[in-house]
Amino acid sequence: MRRLLFLTQRIDPGDPVLAATVSMVRALAARVQEVAVLCDTAVPGSLPENCRVRAFGARTRAGRGLRFEAALVRELLPRPDAVVAHMVPLYVLLAAPLVRPLGVPLLLWYTHWKKHPTLRAAERVCTAVVSVDRRSFPFASAKVRPIGHGIDVSEFPCVDGGGDGPLRALVLGRYSPAKGIDEILRGLRLALDRGLDARLEAHGPTASALEQDHRGRLDRLVQALELGDRVELGGAVARSELGALFARSDVLINNMRTGAPDKVVYEAAASCLPVLASNPVFDDLLPPELRFERGKPETLAARLAGLERRRRPELRERVVERHSVESWADGVLAAAG
Fold first, then answer.
1. In a domain, 330, yes or no
2. C-beta separation of 4 from 32 below 8 A
3. 117 and 236 assigned to the same domain
């Protein structure tokens, strides 16, 4: 394959949510002659020399749409071998009238629980959907190709940790109701009441009014559960700080709503940090003793109480085998066929 178009929101190695996109583009660029990236905004110098970036950012939604279409038209000559839309179904709908008549494969990378009319329309007009797992796409489709998550394992060396003192639990991700952090706090309270000595540190952005409101609710829940001296609800952290967070923690806890396998679970596993997670999609990564049941904080409390405090190199091996950014890029190109 010679030339690929990649459609995404942002190219920024420091973005707390979308930084991993940079590694994905780099992996694709290592396999083709050229990648043209169309994005809202980009940090210069983030991508290899065989990548060209066209930014379509504008003040208004309509302006962004017009600039997107203009940039896409310019990049369709010479004809690309495939077009990949990253996590935004609207990009597929905007691109399809120009791309599909040329016979160019149009792929959507999507891994989330949320289904909506735009996603259903995008699924109908795209060539294929690539996702972590068939269960990480919110409805049944013959177009779904499970290719694993795209984790740059080189960013997350296996770190030493463990030791005496309180169990150090870590929660990472947006302060969204979908993350189930309230249940994690209740599970911690139960574990403490049963005699476990533990501390919990949480970090994440509040990128919307909903998330800001939920963060306030969590602050109040911490006080109601008398966890003020046990829990720290911090702000967003840069991707460069994740290694240090993993190194000083004993376990990552993830309670994301079923259907959206958070990449931070794979990143923590790549660093050999034990992970407790509730999403069934992690059954190819985590053994039964590292999984709990969403909606039942008592099952998390039991897992915390019984956790063996040691690093897990076998988790890193599974990430390397099934969820590396290299295997992800190979899967994208295979789906583009």
1. no
2. yes
3. no
Residue 207 has pLDDT above 90, yes or no: no
pTM metric for this prediction: 0.92
Q: Are residues 140 and 173 in the same domain?
A: no
| Spatial CB neighbours of 152, under 8 Å, sequence gap ≥ 6 | 20, 23, 27, 324, 325
The span from the CA of 172 to the CA of 246, in Å, is 10
Instruction: Please compute the mean of the pLDDT values over residues 226-236 and round it to a whole number.
Output: 96
Which of 105, 120, 146 is a domain's end point? Answer: 146
The parent domain of residue 11 ranges over 3-146
Per-residue pLDDT tens for 3-24? 999 999 999 998 878 889 999 9
Which residue, 128, 146, 164, sits at the end of a domain?
A: 146
Handedness of CA 7, 13, 15, 21 (dihedral sign): positive
Tell whether 134 and 181 lie within a shared domain: no
Residue 73: give its domain's CATH number: 3.40.50.2000
Asked if 271 and 156 count as a contact pair (C-beta separation under 8 A), the reply is yes
**Region of 258 on the Ramachandran plot (φ > 0 left; ψ -120 to 50 alpha; else beta):** beta
Short-list 201, 223, 205, CA closest to 214: 205
Please report whether residue 335 resides in a domain. no
Residues paired with 233 in a beta bridge: 202
Number of structural domains found in the chain: 2
**What is the Cα–Cα distance from 332 to 4, expressed in whole angstroms?**
11
Query: Strand 231-234 to strand 144-146: parallel, antiparallel, or no bridges (unpaired)?
Result: unpaired
Q: Model confidence over 236-253: pLDDT tens digits?
A: 998 889 999 999 999 999
- CA gap 31, 328 in Å, rounded: 12
